[in-house]
Write a sequence for this structure.
């Protein structure tokens, strides 16, 4: 076995091992395509606090409040809280005009949504007592709820004896606005269909995707500690680390406004990626160690989240770059070739036969086609829930969808290099109504 064979063997083994760590995601996707978990109707009516963080959301906050008040759930068992966080508009005034409890918090140094949650829960504990509620829903101000959203979430909450966090189907209220919003809509719908459904059917914990989830009030009995760029990732990792499961309710649908410009899309995804990296740095060690502890209850869930927080695109890039660099040196270490053969040998190793560029190109094409199949499958299986998207838009989204996902690599690179990345608000101004999404 010569130098080239050794390099290819070792690096391909490492790349394969990284792929195998993620292989169970395919099982979740297949199961989620065909199966879902449903929950029986419960007679138990729980009391909930509904949490709405809002930063300059005067255009949309009333829509969410209205959709809550029009839900098929006893309104005397719901208490809506709005935290107007670093607002410079009329968000607080508009929310108060709709008869909900509003707190205002202004601190430019504490500008992530997690800080808004932390302050609001401290206010609820002081003025009402967090334990006077059975649970809390956490939303974003731009959300809208399906008319049966709260009752369906309540069914799932009771099914698991109020011990599990319940998350829900994240639809888009502006799916058909343009290509960017359509790609975002695909991103969240695919996460629900191909990840959360399969995980819950198979008894594995899923993850929180930003908003639209329900927690037991016991979770915040000591306040809300998650204030990073991606508090949902922190929260997810800790829940599973503490042997609590996050379940998915496919029948509970809420609608989210998606960005419509490349600039906002890129900025938001870099922030997500940076937050993902920070959670990897902070939680990976503890998650990995708990995999081998006898007292660990939900080992599959723990393994899944441990694999999920790996920055796998970065790791794959590093392995591919290492393979490339070592192959470039192949003629130097192979003493059987002369100096005149070095250039030709390097070119052959990289360009021709089964060289690196040939292998990468083949792999990229295969990945692209697989992602296209996923997009087509999603449009077919979720055709009743993906509304307002024309056939031509669906075709365009399907063709571009793989590139949207493959952008994760340069986004991860920028996030890795951005040491002082701050949080900036995402503008929301979509006027979609409760009646429209429930038509």
């Amino acid at each position: 076995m010569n130098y080239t064979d050794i390099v290819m063997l070792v690096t391909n083994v490492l790349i394969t091992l990284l792929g195998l760590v993620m292989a169970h995601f395919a099982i979740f996707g297949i199961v989620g395509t065909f199966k879902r978990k449903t929950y029986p109707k419960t007679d138990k009516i729980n009391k909930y606090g509904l949490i709405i963080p809002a930063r300059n959301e005067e255009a949309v906050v009333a829509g969410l409040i209205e959709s809550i008040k029009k839900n098929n759930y006893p309104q005397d068992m719901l208490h809506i809280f709005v935290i107007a966080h670093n607002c410079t508009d009329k968000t607080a005034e508009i929310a108060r005009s709709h008869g909900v409890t509003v707190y205002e918090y202004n601190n430019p140094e504490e500008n992530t949504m997690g800080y808004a949650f932390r302050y609001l829960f401290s206010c609820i504990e002081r003025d009402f007592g967090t334990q006077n509620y059975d649970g809390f829903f956490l939303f974003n101000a731009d959300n809208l709820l399906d008319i049966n959203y709260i009752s369906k979430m309540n069914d799932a909450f009771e099914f698991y004896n109020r011990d599990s966090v319940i998350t829900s189907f994240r639809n888009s209220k502006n799916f058909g606005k343009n290509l960017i919003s359509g790609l975002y809509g695909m991103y969240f719908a695919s996460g629900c269909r191909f990840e959360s459904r399969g995980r819950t059917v198979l008894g594995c914990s899923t993850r929180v995707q930003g908003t639209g989830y329900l927690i037991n009030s016991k979770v915040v009995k000591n306040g809300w500690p998650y204030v990073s760029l991606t508090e949902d990732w922190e929260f997810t990792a800790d829940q599973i680390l503490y042997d609590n499961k996050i379940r998915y309710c496919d029948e509970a649908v809420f609608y989210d406004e998606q960005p419509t410009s490349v600039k906002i899309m890129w900025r938001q995804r870099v922030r997500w990626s940076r937050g993902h990296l920070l959670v990897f740095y902070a939680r990976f060690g503890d998650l990995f160690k708990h995999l081998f502890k006898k007292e660990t209850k939900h080992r599959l869930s723990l393994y899944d989240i441990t694999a999920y927080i790996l920055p796998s695109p970065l790791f794959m890039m590093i392995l591919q770059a290492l393979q490339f660099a070592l192959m470039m040196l192949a003629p130097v270490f192979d003493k059987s070739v002369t100096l005149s053969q070095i250039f030709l040998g390097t070119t052959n190793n990289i360009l021709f036969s089964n060289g690196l560029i040939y292998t990468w190109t083949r792999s990229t094409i295969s990945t692209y086609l697989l992602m296209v199949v996923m997009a087509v499958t999603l449009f077919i299986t979720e055709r009743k829930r993906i509304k307002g998207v024309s056939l031509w838009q669906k075709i365009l989204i399907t063709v571009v969808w793989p590139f949207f996902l493959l952008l994760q690599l340069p986004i991860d690179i920028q996030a890795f290099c951005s040491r002082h990345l701050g949080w900036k608000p995402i503008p929301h101004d979509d006027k979609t109504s409760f009646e429209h999404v429930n038509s």
Summary: The longest strand covers residues 246-256.
